[in-house]
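Running this now, will post back.
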Amino acid sequence: MNIGPGAFVKRALYPLLVMAGDLAAYYLALWLSYLLRVWVVSRWTPMTLNQGYWDFASRLWMPLVILVVFAYEGLYTRREPFWEETRTVVRALFLSFLGIFSIVSLGKLSEEISRAVIVGAGVFALPLIPFVRVRWKPLLHKMGFGIKKTLLMGDNPVGRLAYLGLFRDHYMGIRVVGSLAVPKDFEKTVTVGGAPRAEEPGGLVASGTDLPCLGTVDDLQEIVGREGVRGVVVAFPNFRREALASLIDRVQRVIPSVYVVPNVAQVTLLNSELLYLFYEELFLLGIHNNLKFRVNRWIKAVFDEAIALLLLIPLAPLFVAISVLVAASSPGPLLFRQKRVGRGGRVFNIYKFRTMVEGAEDTLPELLETNPELEAEYARNRKLKNDPRITPIGRFLRKTSLDELPQLINILKGEMSFIGPRPAMEDEMEERYIGCQSDYGLVNPGITGLWQVSGRNTNDFEMRVRLDLWYIRNWSLWLDIVILVRTVGVVLGGRGAM
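Update: finished.
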């Protein structure tokens, strides 16, 4: 038997241990905010702080408010990927500190509790709590806390993708420990009304992965008792509705959680909503393309231009230094200009620091003609990994992405965005974006995007187009923030430099 009191205790302790991590991050944020108020802000304001750190830390009702809001948002019960959970954490923190601030103000406690320290603690908690969670939760899972053992049902590419996604995810704690076989003729044994017919003789279908097959659907009760399984992934998106409902019903009788892979391939679900019609027993899946709304495009533009303005002045010395290096490395202009397609199909000049020898575009046809391997690589990716035309300083600029700094000018001119689809050339738009030019034209192309944080040069051009379209159809401001943060990690790590 693999299940016993120890497994139950670990399951019960897991949310308490996650709470402990959140509290540690909160008290660290409070301490940093207190130090900032005492050692920095006090030099610029005549107002003195009469409370010590422990005066704030002893106010137990403040972290209690945070824990209650976090629990209400499901942050100790639901299992979500890191970035989706972080989105919920940000919302919960905003509500928590809004509540704490309101209590201090309405309760006339401002003489006892500095509101500046509270606000500072909230600001520091925004990165600290997700940072602690992304380190703490996988560590707990390694120690056996919070693991949800799960079975996989589905001998098809979708089932294998579901297994691969859960296998690579170390944050949610869902561990697929084996597969569950289903009779090949199961779908035929279910009537249109959903009642099962007498099962006919037939073979079994396992998951098609390297997972051990632990038994059949009929053995599920025994497997749950033996292995401590608490979840099942049902990956039969092509089953008839009655057959799928019958299968789920059989599984739900003995399993607390069933994860169903729906038959909605290629449908954008990131901004979807689920509507339930009670009497009709139907779900309506509302699918929204946020970029179709003018106010969202305006918010994205304001977000881009505000960040560009904030960065332009402090980066001015770097602009000058790179300009000197480019000028000294080889003769030619400082900036490289090239025609690209922007929002609404408008053509504009994209700016980059020159990273190649002068006249590199004119020598490209000859280079490809004399090198069949390079010609095949360029046809596949529209760029060369080891391009002989790149200068030594240009190679450094590309590896660090510093060659793209002049695109801040494109952003201020309203031609580009920080995050968006890859800036396409006119011939690429005609040859590679067939049938989806209208989607591409909804938004400005970006300095970075999904195509960069998902592999950069390791992705072929077809995959980049798919990622561009997925981004456009699933856009949200939060998605932009996630990509921006991940881009910093990719650039600093030097992975797949462009």
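Residues 304 and 310 are 10 Å apart (CA to CA). More later if anyone needs it.
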